[in-house]
Specification:
Strand order of the largest sheet of chain A: 11-10-9-12-8-1-6-7-13
Structural class of chain A: alpha/beta
Number of strands of chain A: 13
Oligomer: heterodimer
Number of helices of chain A: 7
CATH class of the largest domain in chain A: Alpha Beta
Distance between the termini of chain A: 56 Å
Mean pLDDT of chain A: 91
CATH architecture of the largest domain in chain A: 3-Layer(aba) Sandwich
Order of helices and strands of chain A: EEEEEHEHEHEHEEEEHEHH
Bound molecules: iron/sulfur cluster
Chain lengths: 270, 659
């Protein structure tokens, strides 16, 4: 039985700048990393492998250089890494992306029963949190978003019990398998690759699937299949701030001013 | 006088047993991996004489009782000859006898043996007295083992006098006049004794001497006195650099990285473990041991030895080792937390009289934990990823590396246009406090007319902490990239303001085939002053300045005087020395990657050091390292003394004094 982990290679957003003139992202020289939430999804997959003896495959849609990120996953101990890469996939929004990832999962499921699809709760470049649910919908799997703990999986009864982290409360839910689970960072601490595993991953095969393999209708994927189109990217104007008092000379007064301001604005209650 | 046949039998049995013990022990050394300690023969032979025969290590520094050891060592050397003669004479009484030597020579030797025996007896009594009345801090010095061996030596000496004085009393010793102590015993205790009783006293003494001597020989390999056999060779094998440099690792598939089992150490590491004299000096100076943490460098070496003795015989037979080297929770096994507590300050290696190399052993085991097992304190996960992804410990964007220079005019480094690369370092670039030091350094460089430039956002981390923490794989990759860039940009001369960058770029990078001319700002400042390129007025408003030697500048690179001279010139007063200084300086607690880890057990090392500094009533504490800066400032806050005492980097003191 197989766990499929969906990961995305994203630009290291702390290093992304927006060109003030053109409004475009300056991607040049910006290193790529595995989307931080996905590192937790991957870790959870590896833990399930350890606990329930499941196999773990990672899939990622992206340009050819995504291979580097997939190798990192191999170094951490996944059994199989599949890169979904084709010009036809390019420019995809969350809808088109979820179609490709869902199809890849379906094709993997033809060879080995998929019980769980794991995703990070969102990516740090798009921040939409839609791809995971999109995959679940396309595949007709149960969907459990924002999971912070998997309490139990019963592979015989095809049931999973998980705790979701919601605003101000937790929710323990049971769902039937197969299920898509999107995870929050609190779920685990990712492991670190050992050197022998890194060396092994350097020479391991990353399977490449393009659209010849996937046979998706080109009208439904990539830019063409996207329901949203990007018009413009810009940094929102930020209203000029205000300096309250003189914190260096009179910190107490400055603190009082701040408290007054906050309570005026209804942000705190005193 | 003796029954030679009986003695020969006893002798042969015990010498074979001794030989067998030695074979058993030393055969295990062959389990270790190769390491060349036969290079630079001339230097090694010189060290052998300097350190073993001249007993330089035992006597060095503040070790009063080292003199006692030196006396014992020399008496031992002399009596080694005496005892060899004694044993051979016991077997071949008709052929070997010192008394057959020419008179003059025989008298001289008799005199020397007589006096050496007395000195040895006194030295042994002193050692026993010390252990009873001024006990060393650690408990093992007072074990039965120690007293047993001292007792054996004492009995040997008493038997020596028993034998010779009874011979003198019988009138059968022609060198009697030249054996003052034996003669004294003969004349004060034995006069009037019958010839028979004198003969039987001589006989008994002879047999006691013989048996105790053979017991002593056989006891040696099983006690800490094994060092009698090993330390002399180890002074030949000792490292030739101040601190031994960890070898690189080759990252090929199928290799094992670090040391997780005792046979993965090099033979030298295994041999070291046989050399420990259990003197406890390393524990006394270790910042971790001194603050009640479980790390004790002496025990690390002891555990390696115990592990080798337990597992070695199985490993020789290609069987599985049964006692884990790391984390077995018993004698002969080292706890993981112990391995992470070391600051790699090198104090243990500096004081060890047996030339044992503790730090590389600890780093070897860290390598195993990080590279083979991916097990390390949780705080390090972020650190490792930040290093790998953004080439700095905090994971701050490289674009922010030049923020410190926002208000000044800085040239990028360009070969041909700028002479030196000012390697700012991660702390110097990102840490709010250290940025002031960076600015002070630039002020000094500019006012002395040094031609310098920076790499700006392209400046990488040097990788120091990675290497000390055992993450050699990432270090190796970073260094290769960095060196590529240095070569591309034509970097040759480098100025650093951090002792860790300094040591890494200068000494570790050399192993990758790049010879950079690296200078730390302390040396540079001192040189600039000497050359008359810096004009200083004397600042007086800093009060008493206590100076702290950082480990990677002092013990690792022998830079002690440059900063002191510079302070004296800039302030017209020599800095105040703390109780522990120069090569005995006490670590701030941040080296060896400890900067990035929490200090959960025992007293904080920086607080202990601050308490020591405060005894000198300083107004200013001068440091030369960004880590020391952080540790001292934190320590002062902890003690609530941060409003009374300032911590300044040497560069800041000099910058204040520039005209
Ligand atoms: S290097 Fe320093 S901290 Fe490490 S064991 Fe030696 S004395 Fe202790
Ligand atoms: S390791 Fe060196 S300093 Fe430490 S106890 Fe042994 S001989 Fe002494």
């Amino acid at each position: 039985m197989l766990v499929v982990v969906c990961i995305k290679q994203v630009p290291d957003t702390t290093q992304v700048k927006i060109d003030p003139v053109t409004g475009n992202l300056i991607r040049e020289g910006v290193p790529f990393i595995m989307n931080p939430f996905d590192t937790h999804a991957l870790e959870e997959g590896l833990r399930l492998k350890g606990k329930y003896g499941l196999n773990v495959a990672v899939i990622s849609m992206g340009p050819p250089n995504t291979e580097i990120t997939l190798r990192k996953a191999l170094a951490l101990g996944v059994d199989n890494a599949v890169l979904l890469s084709d010009r036809a996939f390019g420019g995809a929004d969350t809808l088109a992306t979820s179609k490709v990832l869902a199809e890849a999962t379906r094709q993997l499921a033809q060879k080995e029963e998929v019980v769980i699809v794991l995703c990070g709760k969102q990516t740090i470049d798009g921040d939409t949190a839609q791809v995971g649910p999109g995959i679940a919908t396309r595949l007709g799997y149960s969907q459990l978003t924002l999971v912070e703990h998997i309490e139990n999986i019963d592979l015989q009864a095809k049931k999973i019990i998980a705790r979701r982290k919601l605003e101000g409360r937790d929710e323990v839910v049971e769902a039937s398998l197969p299920a898509m689970i999107s995870v929050v960072r609190e779920i685990n601490t990712p492991r670190y690759p050992t050197v022998p595993m890194r060396l092994m991953a350097e020479g391991a095969t990353v399977t490449l699937w393009d659209n010849k393999e996937m046979k998706l209708n080109e009208e439904t994927i990539g830019l063409k299949g996207s329901a949203t189109q990007v018009r413009k990217i810009f940094s929102p104007e930020r209203a000029v701030g205000e300096i309250l008092g003189d914190g260096a000379a009179n910190p107490d007064e400055a603190a009082n001013l701040l408290i007054d301001k906050l309570s005026e604005g209804g942000l705190i209650l005193i | 006088m003796t029954n030679s046949i009986l003695f020969l039998t006893i002798f042969l049995i015990s010498i074979s047993f001794f030989g067998w013990s030695c074979f058993r022990y030393f055969r295990l050394i062959t389990l270790g991996k190769a390491e060349n300690r036969f290079d630079h023969l001339g230097k090694r032979i010189r060290d052998l004489f300097l350190y073993s025969f001249a007993q330089r290590c035992s006597i060095s520094g503040s070790y009063r009782f080292g003199v006692n050891h030196a006396i014992l060592f020399w008496c031992f050397m002399i009596l080694l000859v005496a005892n060899t003669e004694f044993l051979l004479a016991g077997i071949f009484p008709d052929y070997i006898n010192l008394a057959n030597l020419p008179t003059g020579l025989y008298y001289t030797i008799a005199l020397i043996f007589d006096i050496a025996s007395l000195l040895a007896l006194l030295a042994v009594l002193t050692a026993a007295g010390r252990r009873l009345f001024f006990p060393p801090k650690y408990i093992e010095a007072r074990t039965r083992d120690a007293f047993f061996i001292l007792g054996m030596v004492a009995v040997l000496m008493l038997a020596f006098f028993g034998l010779h004085s009874s011979e003198i009393a019988q009138g059968s010793e022609r060198a009697a006049l030249y054996m003052p102590i034996s003669s004294f015993v003969a004349s004060s205790i034995l006069p009037g004794a019958s010839t028979e009783s004198l003969i039987s006293l001589a006989n008994i003494s002879w047999w006691i001497h013989a048996i105790v001597l053979l017991c002593f020989l056989n006891y040696l390999p099983y006690s800490k006195h094994m060092h009698i056999l090993t330390v002399i060779p180890n002074s030949f094998f000792k490292r030739l650099t101040r601190m031994s440099l960890q070898p690189r690792e080759e990252f090929n598939k199928g290799n094992v990285f670090g040391v997780g089992q005792v046979d993965q150490f090099t033979w030298k590491a295994l041999f070291d473990s046989y050399c420990c004299t259990e003197c406890g000096r390393c524990s006394d100076v270790c910042p971790a041991t001194s603050t009640n943490k479980p790390l004790n460098p002496r025990l690390v070496i002891h555990d390696i030895k115990e592990n080798l003795l337990t597992n070695g015989p199985m490993l020789i037979n290609k069987e599985q080792a049964k006692l884990p080297l790391i984390g077995g929770g018993q004698d002969g096994s080292i706890d993981e937390e112990v391995i992470w507590e070391c600051t790699t300050c090198g104090a243990c290696m500096e004081v060890c009289p047996a030339f044992i190399e503790h730090v590389p052993r600890i780093t070897d085991m860290r390598r195993d934990l990080v590279e083979m097992k991916a097990r390390f304190p949780q705080e390090l996960l972020n650190f490792f990823e930040n290093m790998e992804q953004r080439s700095n410990p905090w994971g701050i964007a490289p674009a922010e590396r030049t923020k410190w220079a926002a208000k000044i005019n800085v040239q990028p480094f360009e070969a041909g246009k700028t002479e030196c690369l000012f390697f700012v370092g991660c702390a110097g670039a990102y840490d709010a406090r250290s940025r002031h030091v960076t600015l002070a350094v630039t002020k000094i460089l500019d006012s002395a007319g040094v031609s310098w430039g920076i790499l700006g956002k392209d400046e990488p981390c040097c990788g120091d902490s990675l290497r000390r923490l055992g993450n050699e794989y990432v270090f190796d990759r970073m260094v290769k990239e960095n060196i590529e860039m240095f070569k591309e940009k034509g970097v040759r001369k480098v100025i650093t303001q951090c002792p860790h960058c300094y040591h890494t770029l200068k000494n570790d990078y050399r192993r990758y085939g790049i010879e950079l001319e690296v200078v730390h700002h302390t040396e540079l400042i001192n040189n600039l002053i000497k050359e008359g390129r810096l004009e200083l007025t004397q600042t007086r408003d800093l009060g008493n300045i206590a100076f702290h030697d950082s480990c990677y500048l002092g013990r690792y690179n022998n830079i002690y005087e440059a900063p002191r001279k510079a302070i004296a010139l800039a302030t017209n007063q020599a800095p105040v020395e703390m109780e522990r200084h120069h090569d005995r300086s006490f670590c701030c607690g941040a080296g060896g990657g400890r900067m990035w880890m929490e200090e959960k057990i025992g007293k904080h090392i920086n607080v202990l050091r601050i308490e020591e500094a405060m005894k000198e009533n300083p107004e200013t504490i001068c440091v030369c390292c960004p880590y020391c800066m952080t540790m001292f400032e934190d320590g002062l806050k902890d003690k609530g003394a941060d409003n009374r005492v300032k911590v300044l980097d040497l560069a800041e003191i000099i910058a204040k004094a520039i005209k």
